[in-house]
Amino acid sequence: MNKEKQGVLSLTESDSKGESRTLTASPAFIADRALDDSVYARATRDRLGYWEEQAAQLHWFKKWDRVLDWNPPWVRWFDGGKLNASYNCLDRHLEGERSTKPAVIFEAENGDSRTLTYEQLHGEVCKAANLLKSLGVTKGDRVVIFMPMIVETVISMLACARIGAVHCVVFGGFSAEALRERIEDVEAKLVMTTDDGQRRGKIINMKGIAEEALSAGCESVERVIVVRRQPDKEPLGETSNQGRDVDYHEAMKEMSTNCPAEVMDAEDMLFVLYTSGTTGKPKGVVHTTGGYMTGVATTHKGVFDLKENDIYWCTADVGWITGHSYIVYGPLANGATVLLYEGAPDYPAKDRYWEIIAKHKVSILYTAPTAIRTFKKWGLSYLEKHDLSSLRVLGTVGEPINPEVWLWYYKFVGGERCPICDTWWQTETGMIMLSPLAGLSEMKPGSCSAPIPGVKVSVLSRSGEVMEWGHNGYLTVSEPWPAMMRTIYGNDNRYVKSYWSHWPGIYFTGDGARRDKDGFFWIIGRVDDVINVSGHRFSAMEVENALLEHPAVAEAACVGKTHEVKGQALVIFVTLRDKNAPKDEVISDLRQFLVGRIGAFARPDEVYVTNDLPKTRSGKIIRRLLKDIAEGRAMGDTTTMESSHVLKELYKG
Ligand code: WTA
Q1: pLDDT (0 to 100) of residue 645
Q2: How many angstroms separate the alpha carbon of residue 426 from the centre of ligand 1?
Q3: Rounded to whole angstroms, how far apart are CA atoms 528 and 623?
Q4: What pTM value is reported for the model?
Q5: What is the tens place of the pLDDT at every residue in 249-280?
Q6: Average of pLDDT values for 53-78?
């Protein structure tokens, strides 16, 4: 290794894209890390053997017969193997010292904390599993979990996994309508929710949202479990449906802490998680048990160089894939201590994250570029008040991170001693696919480095040729990987069409990327109509379909615009049925309408009212032109002619 590069930036070659700046971890970090370089060679030499070794680190009731059955795009990993995800996250840690080790440290927004050891978490999960069983939930049934970042959400997920029920967590920020759509698509038998959620000191009535969803359809739902947040409140409140609703805390009192884990096939469904695609209908991404657990446990340990005494904090919401894979299943399978925070980064003050890190001596922090950009904007004074010396490893996920923001994170949060893992992956991939392995790989600020061991990706041209370094192309995965999604719930055709129809046997991620001459990957962003706002995925069409439900709207289009903090911001264009309608009123109404229809995170930054939208001859809206307008690029180039009639009439609110 080049000594000069250790712990400092190497700026030997100038490159405007920052592609020659490399960093390595300190010698002390390297000396202490579990894996060495040979892991890459090991995985390349015998990829399937490598994954078998990883799978063998889990607990199996019965070993698999075949490591991989690949009939593109249909896949079976560890076929014939029997295991249980909840058993792997809990029971196997109960012998020895881990039983009294904290599994989850919960930090409430108001500063209250609560710790559950592995033994305690196991007891709670068994009780909740027995509760689900007592309400008639059996293997294969779907349970929708609409809850905030509280311990009971983790307990509920593991309780489902324990009895073989399929959980479908719906992010707590979704509207009643979005929740209804998901409950109906997955045909949930039972819904779990809470009376309240808390955010910035305000109480969010989650049960009310759930009730609204349930009253609008959801025929499949037989029972609703309500977790009570406020002990002094009436158990089920006025809106409760007596025959249907169950008070979680009351019912849990009667439940036994003994519940044997259901023996599941490696390919049995573990969960469904909805994400946005290019059409208006969200996709229920299906993940199964053996491959998923192998993928998330391996990557959580290997990427972050997990040590027994680490205090690991992932700031994602448990309602997104990052929460599933790297708050719940990966870390708990590895017997880690996980910090769970219900609250905002700026409440009660803008130093809340740093206060939490100092209070709990967090050693691994995994967060999103949007959060880091926000912290950078707020300034250093908030960090400087707190002791961040417990931090050892940093991670980012969800969006590209700009090199200067990466460097800020490295310098001021990590004190120039913590490797940063910029992890690229997706709801569909289930696990991290590209990232440096902390301390092992060289890092380039802004690059997610290279595929992790056992994963093969390529940047391809439209016709399927591998792009030369330095050239943009489509990011694809060329070999199956254990945690890959298996299908879209109830829609195999859409699965094949969305991901496997571009190049035979090759998975298309929807992202553009390029490789540099050193083999580092640089993600350009989505090349489809998916918009990424603060790491939240939106389908342009999903937003447009919602807008079309508004009585004032005749036509609608939605695009993403570059945003300094959020990465992208939602911009919408509408034409109105009544051209004389008061525009400002309509615009403010539309913003509110989208919040009600999708969720508060879908509030658009800009709304344009126009008399016309640019369309192709076949009548398809040309979003590319609208994007140019939103970005302020529409003047003076070839697009001007096509968009001039739109520009002329534009009214911005
Ligand atoms: C984007 C989140 C650049 C990408 C785990 C991907 C990233 C989408 C990165 C998936 C990264 C995720 N650098 N872009 N490190 N990580 N993305 O399903 O466009 O919510 O396709 O999964 O986020 O978003 P999803």
Answers
A1: 63
A2: 5
A3: 11
A4: 0.93
A5: 999 999 999 999 999 999 999 999 999 888 88
A6: 98
401-407-409 Cα angle (round to 5): 80
Which residue's CA lies nearest to atom 22 of ligand 1?
A: 426
Q: What does the H/E/C string look like for 263-322?
A: CEECCCEEEEEEECCCCCCCEEEEEECHHHHHHHHHHHHHHHCCCCCCEEEECCCCCCHH
Quick one: DSSP state of residue 418? Answer: S
Residue the block writes with tokens 């509280």: 150
Cβ-contact 90, 158 below 8 angstroms: yes
- Residues with a CB atom less than 6 Å from ligand 1: 275, 320-322, 397-400, 422-427, 448, 509-511, 523, 525-526, 532, 537
On the 0-12 / 13-18 / 19+ scale of CB atoms within 10 A, 6 is middle
Euclidean distance between CA atoms 221 and 219, whole angstroms? 6
Q: Is 116's pLDDT higher than 60? A: yes
- Residue 400 Cα, ligand 1 centroid: separation in angstroms? 8
**What would the 3-class secondary structure string for 363-392 be?**
CEEEECHHHHHHHHHHCCHHHHCCCCCCCC
State the distance from the centre of ligand 1 to the C-alpha of 90, rounded, in angstroms.
29
Q: Enumerate the β-bridge partners of residue 434.
A: 424, 451
The pick from 537, 539, 568 for probing ligand 1's pocket by mutation, whose C-beta has the most ligand atoms within 8 angstroms, reads 537
Q: What is the atom index within ligand 1 of the atom nearest the CA of 427?
A: 18
- Residue range 432-437: mean pLDDT, rounded: 98
Q: Specify the pLDDT at position 624.
A: 85
Ligand 1 centroid distance, CA of 526 (Å): 9
The band of 55, judged by pLDDT with boundaries at 50, 70 and 90, is: very high
Residue 443 · residue 23 · CB < 8 Å:
yes
Ligand 1 centroid, distance to 251 Cα (angstroms): 39
CA distance 517 to 472: 13
The pick from 272, 278, 523 for probing ligand 1's pocket by mutation, whose C-beta has the most ligand atoms within 8 angstroms, reads: 523
Residue nearest to atom 11 of ligand 1 (CA): 424
State the pairing for strand pair 269-275/283-288: antiparallel
Give the residue, out of 425, 498, 528, with the most ligand 1 atoms within 8 A of its beta carbon, to mutate for a pocket test. 425
Q: Give percent above pLDDT 70 in the chain.
A: 93
What pLDDT sits at residue 648?
A: 66
Mean pLDDT of the chain: 92
- If you take atom 13 of ligand 1, which residue's CA is the nearest one? 400
Question: What token pair was written down for 223?
Answer: 């029972």
